[in-house]
């Protein structure tokens, strides 16, 4: 930024002051109280407005408004953002009287910058501006604490190369995440998740107890059903016991036979048909192929899940084609055209409003506007004619005609008769009283006729006749509407052109349109990335599926001879059952041979079917003593009582079974495992955050030490250039400084006032060079060299010329010694004396 010119209408003690700046260094001289400090504060006021600055005991509103006046006003002409701008600021006694206006010098087009203006231009708050670019003779500490804005900017520049990115912000963000994980009360925190796990565990324990109880009741019901069927059958078999007496005498043999037959039936049921035994080598080969198939299926499942997530994300973006069309419609050139059209519309609106303010109020005469205007013009001419006939100036006119006739007759005696007939006679006739009365009567008749027409039109339009008579001037003013129509048409054309882009984007302002375009650009980029990802996943899934198909076909080829049917059982279940059956079969074959030998020894050659039929009656009745009629009767009564008790017990158990309601414990276990995994994930995340914070803080400490060393070296170099003495300066946390002279290290307060000012000037110049990286900004120095001797002043000015040539420097002084050194390098301006101001 370059300041070319300033104009002060009135600011403090300065009035009607205009200065131009053509060189990099401006030396502004003036006697004491000539207004140098006021001029320096004028720049501060122009950039930051009439704000109170308590830290530096400055109230710019009180300093700006002159005593006895109600406002302060000034302007700056600057070159900024490749444009020549005019900045105008006005401050009154209250904030509502303030305004800031910025516009281009040539086109007068207004520019908009957010207040405070200095923050928008330099990126500094008013406090940071005073601590860097705004220098006085007093020593101002650059930083108050480690949270100072300048401290953060300088630290961040070293850490990341960006002023607004810092380790501190990253550490604060990590602290917030750790706090949420350790102490958060919402979902996603470790305490909340642990409470949910405890609740789920208690519910699981209760569900397990109720599940076992329900299973026990169900088993008891099944037992009761079996016993009831058995008791009913026993009642039916009591009548057949007489025919079974022969078998009863062989009770012990029958019981042994029953046990042997039961074991044999169990063995027979467990046998399987079509059994084929595999060798150990073949079984191992099949197990390895099944394991390969499982690994391939898991990989395919992961690929499918990722592919489905990507496809769902693509399907959720429903407006892709519309967004792509919008981006194609609105190119960079179109966007710049829309901005230019909006600015042109603002200018046309202002011009249209200005013209309408001067256009006046227009009565609504509708289609009779021209008729009314002609009638009013005619009425005005009639009034003027009537007025002319009533004038009392006829005698001077007749006298002038007589004089003219006399002169004509003297010049030409023969023309006396001509002048009498053609000059005097007509005038005497016209101005004769009878003729005058007739003319006035005729004029009044026409006037009354015009007034009647005006009354008639007023009645038809519903207006007051007096208002119609007064509207001639307004109607004449409204005739010139062509310019207004052209302006309105231009505005309408601009709005129609922009309305198309608003309509296709669903917005109503350029700001909203810019936001929509940015969102579309991001969404299109993300969509294209997902499309590429989806294509890659789809191409990876196909060979994986082919691999699984080949493995399944190979396994089916090896397992089909064993009786495997893919439609009836899964591969894992079939193979697990095959290996279990292989073990079980070897055991059953051995038992089967033993039982066959035992059965032959018990029943001999008797048919097995008949022995089983006879034994079933004794088994169900559980008879172990001699059979008699009394015994059978008692047995029947006993069976009836048992049936009644069992029926009652079954009803009670069924009611109890229905009352047990709970969630499936297997579901709860799976859900609890999921929560445990989530808790472990949160703990891992917490440990990662803690370790990250530790590493981050260590890195920050290391970089700060390096940065303080770098900053101290630069301050030491500039301090040595100014003073001519070699001292090592230490900048401790950018809050205080010390220096080493010889082998002794001393606090900066041990320096003299002049050396201390030179030290802080070195610090400020280092800060400016660090923050702005030689970008053009103004440096305002008011009596900075008061405590400098001539040599150190020259050294400081040399430093400014050699290292800060890209900056615009304003030096305010009441001495002449700066002029001697800067005679050929600076533009020298002299403020007028106080008496002349």
From TrEMBL:
Residues 214-306 form a coiled coil. One of its GO terms (biological process) is double-strand break repair. The keyword Oxidoreductase does not apply. GO terms for molecular function: ATP hydrolysis activity. Residues 5-273 form the Rad50/SbcC-type AAA domain. SUPFAM superfamilies: P-loop containing nucleoside triphosphate hydrolases. This is AAA domain-containing protein. Pfam families: AAA_23. It comes from Proteiniclasticum ruminis. Keywords: Coiled coil. It comes from the Bacteria.
């Amino acid at each position: 930024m370059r300041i070319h010119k300033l104009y002060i209408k009135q600011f403090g003690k300065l009035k009607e002051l205009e200065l131009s700046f053509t060189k990099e260094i401006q030396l502004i001289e003036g006697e004491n109280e000539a207004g140098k400090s006021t001029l320096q504060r004028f720049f501060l006021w122009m950039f930051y407005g009439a704000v109170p600055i308590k830290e530096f005991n400055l109230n710019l509103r009180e300093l700006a408004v002159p005593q006895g006046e109600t406002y302060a006003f000034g302007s700056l002409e600057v070159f900024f953002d490749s444009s020549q701008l005019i900045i105008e600021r006005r401050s009154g006694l209250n904030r509502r009287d303030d305004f800031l206006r910025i516009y281009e010098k040539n086109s007068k087009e207004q520019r908009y910058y957010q207040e405070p203006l200095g923050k928008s231009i330099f990126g500094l708050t008013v406090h940071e501006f005073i601590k860097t670019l705004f220098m006085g003779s007093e020593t101002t500490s650059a930083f108050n604490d480690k949270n100072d804005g300048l401290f953060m900017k300088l630290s961040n520049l070293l850490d990341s190369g960006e002023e607004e990115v810092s380790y501190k912000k990253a550490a604060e963000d990590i602290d917030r995440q750790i706090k949420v994980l350790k102490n958060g009360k919402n979902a996603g925190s470790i305490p909340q998740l642990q409470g949910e796990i405890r609740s789920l565990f208690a519910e699981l324990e209760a569900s397990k107890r109720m599940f076992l109880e329900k299973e026990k009741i169900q088993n008891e019901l099944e037992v009761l059903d079996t016993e009831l069927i058995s008791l009913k059958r026993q009642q039916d078999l009591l009548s057949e016991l007489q025919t079974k007496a022969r078998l009863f005498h062989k009770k012990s043999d029958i019981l042994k036979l029953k046990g042997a037959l039961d074991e044999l039936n169990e063995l027979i049921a467990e046998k399987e048909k079509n059994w084929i035994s595999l060798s150990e080598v073949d079984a191992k080969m099949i197990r390895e192929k099944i394991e390969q198939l499982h690994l391939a299926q898991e990989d395919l499942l992961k690929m499918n899940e990722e592919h489905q997530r990507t496809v769902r994300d693509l399907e959720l973006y429903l407006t892709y084609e519309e967004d792509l069309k919008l981006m194609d419609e609105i190119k960079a050139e179109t966007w710049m055209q829309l901005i230019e059209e909006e600015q042109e519309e603002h200018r046309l609106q202002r011009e249209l409003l200005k013209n309408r303010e001067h256009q006046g109020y227009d009565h609504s005469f509708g289609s009779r506007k021209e008729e009314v205007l002609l009638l009013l013009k005619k009425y005005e001419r009639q009034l003027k004619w009537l007025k002319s006939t009533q004038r009392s100036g006829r005698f001077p006119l007749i006298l002038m005609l007589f004089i003219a006739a006399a002169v004509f007759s003297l010049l030409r005696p023969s023309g006396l008769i001509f002048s009498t007939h053609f000059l005097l006679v007509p005038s005497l006739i016209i101005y004769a009283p009878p003729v005058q009365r007739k003319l006035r009567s005729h004029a009044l008749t026409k006037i009354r006729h015009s007034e009647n027409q005006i009354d008639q039109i007023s009645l038809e339009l519903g207006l007051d006749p007096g208002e119609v008579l007064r509207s001639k001037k307004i109607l004449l003013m409204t005739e010139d509407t062509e310019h207004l129509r052209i302006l309105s048409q231009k505005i309408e054309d601009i709005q129609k052109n922009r309305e198309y882009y608003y309509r296709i984007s669903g917005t109503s302002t350029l700001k909203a349109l810019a936001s929509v375009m940015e969102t579309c650009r991001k969404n299109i980029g993300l969509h294209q990335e997902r499309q590429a990802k989806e294509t890659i996943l789809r191409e990876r899934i196909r060979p994986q599926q082919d691999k699984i198909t080949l493995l399944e076909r190979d396994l089916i080829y090896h397992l089909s001879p064993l009786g495997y049917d893919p439609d009836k059982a899964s591969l894992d279940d079939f193979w697990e059952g095959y290996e279990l059956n292989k073990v079980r079969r070897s055991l059953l074959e051995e038992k089967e041979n033993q039982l066959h030998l035992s059965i032959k020894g018990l029943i001999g050659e008797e048919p097995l079917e008949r022995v089983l039929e006879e034994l079933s009656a004794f088994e169900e009745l559980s008879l172990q003593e001699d059979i008699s009629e009394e015994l059978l009767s008692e047995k029947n009564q006993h069976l009836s009582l048992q049936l009644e008790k069992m029926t009652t017990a079954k009803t009670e158990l069924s009611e109890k079974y229905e009352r047990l309601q709970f969630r499936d414990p297997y579901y709860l276990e799976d859900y609890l495992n999921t929560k445990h995994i989530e808790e472990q994930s949160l703990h891992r995340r917490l440990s990662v955050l803690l370790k990250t914070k530790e590493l981050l803080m260590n890195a920050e400490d290391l970089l700060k030490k390096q940065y303080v060393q770098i900053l101290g070296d630069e301050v030491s170099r500039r301090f040595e250039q100014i003073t001519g003495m070699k001292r090592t300066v230490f900048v401790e946390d950018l809050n205080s400084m010390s220096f080493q002279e010889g082998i002794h290290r001393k606090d900066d307060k041990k320096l003299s006032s002049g050396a201390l000012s030179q030290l802080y000037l070195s610090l400020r110049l280092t800060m400016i060079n660090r923050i702005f990286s030689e970008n053009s900004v103004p440096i305002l120095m008011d009596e900075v060299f008061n405590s400098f001797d001539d040599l150190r002043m020259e050294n400081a000015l040399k430093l400014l010329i050699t290292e800060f040539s890209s900056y615009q420097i304003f030096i305010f002084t009441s001495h002449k010694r700066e002029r001697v050194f800067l005679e050929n390098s600076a533009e020298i301006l002299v403020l007028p004396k106080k008496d002349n101001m």
